Amino acid sequence: MAVGLKQKEIVNKIVEKFLSSGFVVMLFHYDGFVDGWKSLAWSSCAIHVSAINQTKWWFAKRFLHPDIVAEYNYIFLWDEDLLVDNFDPKRYLSIVKEEGLEISQPALDPTKSEVHHPLTVHKAVSKVHRRYYKLKGSGRCDDKSTAPPCIGWVEMMAPVFSKKSWQCVWHLIQNDLIHAWGLDRQLGYCAQGDRMRNVGVVDSEYIVHLGLPTLGGSNGNEARFCDLSFALQAPSDSPGDNRAKVRMQSYIEMQVFGKRWKDAAEKDKCWIDPYEQANKTSH
C-alpha cells in the first residue's frame, strides 16, 4: 500500500485489520516520512519502503516481483483512502476461493464512496457479481457483453490478485508508466482462464473509497512526471494545476500503454488473442 502520513489514521485501521488476520503488510511511503509511523504499535511488524513522490504501481514493479512474493497466495495492492468497517480479509479470501476468483476487488459502498465505474458498486443482496448492466444510452452492457468494463474487470484502487495472476500482471506493469492507466482493461488476460468467470467484485465484504487526491493534490504531495510530455514539466504553485497534470499524465500513459500493447501483439506472429473478437464486438 502506498501511503502518506496525512492518511495515517485511515491506514492504521486498514493495517490493524490485516495484521490481526495474519497478513504481512508492506507500506510504500511516497512522502518519505517513515519515522512518523513509529508511534503505532504495529509499525515494527510492517515492511517499510520509501521513495519520494512515487505511485503504488512504481513501487509494485520494483518491490513486488513474483519471486519476492512467491510464498504468498494473494496480493492486496490497495490505495490508502479506503474505509474497511464492513470488510474482513479472511472472509473475503474465503469467498474469493469459493468463487474461483483470480482477480477481484471488494465492492464500493455507493452512499459514501467516490465511484468511478458502476460495475464496482455494492449489491446488498449479492455475495459476488461479475457483470454490470446498462441498457440505455451509449456504452450499453447486457447479457451479451463479453468484455470490460461490462464484465471481466476491476478498478485499480483496491485490486486483489492470486499468486498465479500476479505472476502475469507484474509483467504487464511498465517501468516508466507509473499510474498504470489502461492496465485495468488488460487484466483479464491474466485471469488464468475465462475472465468472465475468474474476475469479479465481492459484495458481501465491501469498502468505502474516499477518493482523496494524493499525488498532485492539496496535501502538497506533488507528483514526479516521466518525460512523456514536455508540457507537463512546467512548475506550478497551484494544487489544482498539479492535480490536472497528474490526470493529463495518466491519460498520456494510457495512450502509450495502448500503443505498446498493440505493437507487441502485431509483432508476435505466434500469439493468438483469446479475446480479439470479444473486444471488437463489446458493447
Please describe the structure with a list of short key phrases separated by commas or semicolons.
single chain, 283 residues, alpha/beta, 6-stranded mixed sheet, 3-stranded parallel sheet, Lysine ketoglutarate reductase trans-splicing protein, DUF707
Largest sheet: 6 strands, mixed
* Percentage of β-strand residues: 5-15%
Global morphology? globular
What's the alpha carbon Rg, rounded to whole Å? 19 Å
**Helix content range of the residues, please?**
25-40%
Total number of helical segments? 7
- Structural class determined from secondary elements: alpha/beta
What is the N-to-C succession of helices and strands? EHEEHEEHEEEHHEHH
Q: How far is the N terminus from the C terminus? A: 34 Å
Number of domains: 1
* pLDDT < 50 stretches: 217-237
Mean pLDDT: 89
Number of strands: 9
Protein name: Lysine ketoglutarate reductase trans-splicing protein
Organism: Glycine soja
InterPro entries: DUF707
Pfam families: DUF707
SSE topology:
Blueprint: E1 2-3, H1 8-20, E2 26-29, E3 47-50, H2 56-63, E4 74-76, E5 82-83, H3 89-99, E6 103-108, E7 128-129, E8 160-162, H4 163-172, H5 195-198, E9 199-209, H6 239-267, H7 276-281
Parallel strand pairs: 1-2, 2-3, 6-9
Antiparallel strand pairs: 4-8, 5-9, 6-8, 7-9
Task: Describe the overall structure.
There is one protein chain. This protein is α/β, with parallel strands linked by helices and 283 residues long. The chain has one domain (70-281). Helix content is 29%, strand content 13%. It has helices spanning 8-20, 56-63, 89-99, 163-172, 195-198, 239-267, 276-281; strands spanning 2-3, 26-29, 47-50, 74-76, 82-83, 103-108, 128-129, 160-162, 199-209. The strands form 2 sheets. Strands 4, 5, 6, 7, 8 and 9 form a 6-stranded mixed beta sheet that branches. Strands 1-2-3 form a 3-stranded parallel beta sheet, with no helix packed on it. α1 links the parallel β1 (2-3) and β2 (26-29). Residues 217-237 have low confidence and may be disordered.
